[in-house]
Amino acid sequence: MADHEILSQYIERYNRMFADESPKNMREEIDGIKLIINQKVVDHFAYEEEHIFPGLLQAIPSKEVSDAVSILRKEHVSLLKQAKRLNEMLSNQNPDGNCTGELRKAMLDFLANLERHAAKENELFPSLM
Ligand SMILES: [Fe+2]
Ligand SMILES: [Fe+2]
What we know:
This protein is mainly alpha-helical. It is built from four helices and no strands.
């Protein structure tokens, strides 16, 4: 899925950035990071829920697929909650200060969860093509 490739490029980039104890380009990147969290991820989830999941359920009406889709939907809810919290942390970040350990950990955590989620979908979606 093309969207996933784009997301995974961001995941890689921000993983690298936040792997650093005190990420150097964070201040310059912060608007971009917020855009990804607040818009790209939100739009992507909405697209899947409106188009991909219903298409998948229609193409393969099995219990296995419907169970998988309901897990993916739940993951969207929890990822969005995590994104909301991250967004607040990013907004409260002192622009001159260093990245706090808490923000760093939350960011890495979110990226890892997002990556796991997309990998699950990548296994499920090809059955649609
Ligand atoms: Fe998803
Ligand atoms: Fe996805």
